[in-house]
Design brief:
It contains nine helices and 13 strands. The chain is of the alpha/beta class. The strands form three sheets. The protein has a seven-stranded mixed beta sheet, sandwiched between helices. A hairpin with a 7-residue loop joins strand 12 and strand 13. The radius of gyration is 18 Å and the shape is globular. The protein starts with 12 loop residues before the first strand and ends with a helix. Bound molecules: S-adenosylmethionine. S-adenosylmethionine binds next to strand 6, strand 7, strand 8 and helix 5.
Length: 284
């Protein structure tokens, strides 16, 4: 198990190499948590500009300052487009942010399947504002590999949210065709899958690779965008996958009150893709 840490020896700086030649750094006010699980290196630091920052294997997962950019754009386009999302599955999401957003909707039950219990414990302690979600009686927390869970579960879901890390270590299986075929088989008719898909600029090959198999599995294999300031080069991509719901044809989006980022205009704008990406996805 090759794991990577971001902290320098003197623990005064944490660096994420987004490419071998460029990245992002955080000066460290204090180190709140460092540990190794059987899956990855877990680091939580406090930074002057971004507050608490969670890094897994040296990669930024969530920061106190911009986590809502990501969690709202991952969760609400799917949840607000679905007519009545009652049963929701989240794969990954150990920090609790995606679960918090899902529970803003009138769901009956939300499962969160996270492979690494150490991530949950570390976040429970150091990301207190994300913890109410775990106390909600509608939430069921399962510590397991998402692939194993989806292969075994008898449950069917209205919405499935993939809040995985990048395709390294335990997360590789969550970016494969077999996993998406299995997700489709656990979706109720009219269901939606929303998944984090990576950086607009740095992960183009992955968007093209996935688009080839996703368009064979779903009638609407859409990609949408949203800014996340601390993610590789600031612009993130997400998949909106459904057979029946065209995200741009939904007459009335059911959006919870009090959101800080997502709204109907952002929803429409998010599905507008730049020419270079459209060309690549259309095989041009
Ligand atoms: N937003 C972050 C990103 O885009 O990089 C992801 C945040 S969330 C913390 C990612 C979570 O996925 C981690 O807690 C990791 O342990 C979990 N994870 C990775 N592989 C997994 C798997 N096979 N099954 C379930 N959870 C997994």
């Amino acid at each position: 198990m090759k794991t990577t840490r971001s902290l320098n020896v003197r623990r005064t700086e944490a660096r994420e190499y987004q490419t071998p030649a460029s990245g992002i750094f955080f000066t460290v006010k204090n180190v709140l948590y460092t540990g190794k699980s059987s899956f990855q290196t877990i680091e939580i630091i406090r930074n002057k500009d971004y507050g608490r920052v969670l890094l897994l294997d040296g990669l930024v997962q969530t920061t106190e300052r911009d986590e809502f950019y990501y969690h709202e754009m991952l969760v609400h386009p799917a949840m607000s487009s679905h007519p009545k999302p009652e049963h929701v599955l989240i794969v990954g999401g150990g920090d609790g942010g995606a679960l918090r957003e899902v529970l803003k909707h009138p769901v009956k039950k939300a499962w969160m399947v996270e492979i690494d219990g150490h991530v949950i414990e570390a976040c429970r302690t150091h990301f207190p504002w994300l913890q109410d979600a775990f106390k909600d009686p509608r939430a069921e927390l399962v510590v397991a590999d998402g692939k194993v869970f989806i292969d075994a579960t008898p449950e069917m879901f209205d919405v499935i949210i993939i809040d995985s890390s990048d395709p390294v270590g335990p997360s590789v299986v969550l970016h494969e065709e077999a996993f998406y075929r299995k997700l489709k088989s656990r979706l109720k008719p009219g269901g939606v899958v929303a998944a984090q898909a990576g950086s607009l600029m740095l992960h183009q090959a992955s968007h093209v690779r996935k688009s080839v198999f996703l368009r064979k599995i779903f009638r609407h294999p859409d990609l949408y965008l949203g800014p996340v300031p601390t993610y590789p080069v600031g612009m993130w991509c997400y998949n909106f996958l459904s057979d029946r719901i065209d995200p741009l044809a939904v007459r009335r989006l059911k959006i919870p009150k009090g959101l800080r980022f997502y709204n109907p205009d952002i929803h429409r704008a998010a599905f507008a893709l730049p020419n270079f990406l459209k060309d690549q996805l259309s095989g041009g």
